[in-house]
Structure formats: C-alpha cells, structure tokens
Design brief:
The chain contains nine helices and four strands; from the N terminus they run ααββααβαβαααα. The protein has 252 residues and is α+β, with helices and mostly antiparallel strands. The chain has two domains: 151 residues, NADH Oxidase (3-Layer(aba) Sandwich); 69 residues, no CATH class. α2 crosses α4. Bound molecules: flavin mononucleotide.
C-alpha cells in the first residue's frame, strides 16, 4: 500500500473514547468544520451543531458536534427563488444523509490530522426530538449522528477491517464460498480478540429471547456483537419514523 500524509492520517485513525481536558481553539474548531464543508455535496443539506465544554459528553470529550441533515435552509433559499420543495422526503433524506456523512467524515480526518481524536455516537436519530428542543431546531432538520472530539488521552491500536477481497469486487459481485466468509469473520474476530476490545470494556450485548449464552470475553468478538445488534434491535421502524415525522419528514 502506498502512503502519504493524507493516507497516513486515515490509516492511523481510530475512535477515541478518552479525552484530555484541553479545549481545542476556535481556529482548530473552525478548521475542522471548514474541512468538513469542503466534502463533496449533492445540495449542502446538512448543518453542524456544536456544544463546547459540556459536563456530560460521552467520554468527557470537550467538543460535541451533532451532524444534522437539513432541508430547512435550502427550502428557505428555494422560497426566495419562488420554488417549493416537491421532491419526496425519502429522496431528499437519502441525498442529505450522504451530504452530512461525507462532511462528518472529513471532520474526522481533519481532526486526526490536527492531533485530535473523535468518535461517532449513533443514538441521535432516536433522540431527535430532545436534541431539537435543546438546539431550537426548525422543522426539516434531523439530527443524524453525534460526533465527539478533542485531544486523545488514550492511544488504542487501529481496529481491524474486512480483508480487501470481502469489499472490493471488480466487474462482478462474487459468488461467495464459505471459506471466504469464514476468513473475513476470522480476520475481524481474531483482530478484536487480540486487542481485548470487548473484554477491556467488559461489554457484551445481552441476549434477549430464548438463546442461551455460550460466549465469554475470550470468545465474544465482532461478528457475534454485530449479529446480536442487528439480530435483536428495533425490528419495527415505528419509533424512528415517529422521530422523522416530528421533525417534519414523511417517509412512509
Ligand atoms: C454511524 C456510527 C455510529 C456509531 N455509534 C457509536 C456509539 O454509539 N458508541 C461508540 O462507542 N462508537 C460508535 N461508533 C464508532 C464505531 O464503533 C467505530 O467506528 C467502529 O467500531 C470501528 O472502530 P474505529 O473507528 O476505531 O476504527 C459509531 C460509528 C458510526 C460510523
């Protein structure tokens, strides 16, 4: 693999879950957000909320961003041009998710390059109504993901990824054999086990229903973790749809 400063910053980045008290300067914060804004966009349908020095941030991070999809600002511009948004909300959101996510990841890489660390927190969509009240959000703005940031007070190893042959498919999607799947699982599971990732945090998702626990911290790793997450959480979309509806988006 080739390397250069940009690739190095991407390859050494890892989610940081312990921060020093040092507050990043205004210039650092603005640089990170401006770098985020320079990401490719479909319609710049995102906004970045910031809270500094809150007491209750995840892992004591000095900065807490909430990356929102935002159709409100664009609709205000369209109104000035005597246009109304008629595109369906599923499509609006699909493109806005991409705008917001690309900006957020640019912020992550910019932070890394400036000696900071960060971590996404995925609960924002379920807390959309609460966040909307805190920040006085207008309708058509939806909190997509929280991003905490600051100077790291830990230096964990980079986390494993699937092997390239489980991601990059040239010309044709492969007909996976069992071995390729097993190998991809092994790379992920051995990688996380070697780091004591779940053991160190004593974090194992509880089984609901009638499955019997057969894992301990010497065997519980990423493929079991991710299977328990998406095999157990939120089978109904109702709660999420309700949050979208309250923010003025009609998906169904
Ligand atoms: C959309 C999204 C939501 C996430 N939510 C959380 C979260 O709620 N809590 C957490 O500790 N990490 C969260 N993460 C961070 C991931 O756990 C982390 O990126 C992943 O385990 C890979 O590790 P790495 O970032 O260190 O490479 C989230 C990441 C993304 C992209």
């Amino acid at each position: 693999m080739l390397t250069n400063p940009a690739i190095e910053a991407m390859m050494r980045r890892k989610s940081i879950r312990k921060y020093t008290d040092q507050m990043p300067s205004d210039e650092v914060i603005e640089t990170v957000v401006l770098a985020g804004m320079q990401a490719p966009f479909a319609s710049q349908s995102f906004s970045v909320l910031l809270s500094r020095g809150k007491k209750d941030t995840d892992w004591g991070a000095p900065l807490e961003f909430v990356i929102c999809v935002d159709s409100y600002k664009l609709e205000r511009i369209m109104a000035k041009r005597n246009w109304k948004m008629i595109s369906n909300d599923l499509m609006i959101l699909m493109f806005a998710f991409q705008d917001a996510t690309l900006a957020a990841q640019n912020m992550v890489t910019a932070a890394e390059s400036l000696g900071m660390g960060s971590c996404f927190i995925g609960s924002a969509p379920y807390l959309a109504d609460k966040i909307a009240q805190e920040y006085n959000l207008p309708p058509r703005v939806f909190p997509l993901v929280k991003l905490v940031m600051g100077y790291p007070d830990e230096n964990p190893p980079v986390r494993p990824r699937y092997p390239l042959n489980y991601v990059l498919f040239e010309d044709k999607y492969p007909d996976f054999d069992e071995e390729t799947i097993t190998e991809a699982m092994k790379v992920m599971d051995d990688g996380y086990l070697a780091q004591d990732y779940y053991k160190a945090g004593e974090f194992m998702l509880k089984l609901t229903g009638d499955r019997e626990e057969t894992f301990d911290f010497d065997t519980y790793s990423w493929t079991e973790h991710i299977s328990r997450k998406w095999g157990q959480w939120y089978p109904s979309p109702d709660r999420l749809l309700e949050q979208f509806r309250k923010r003025g988006f009609e998906i169904a």
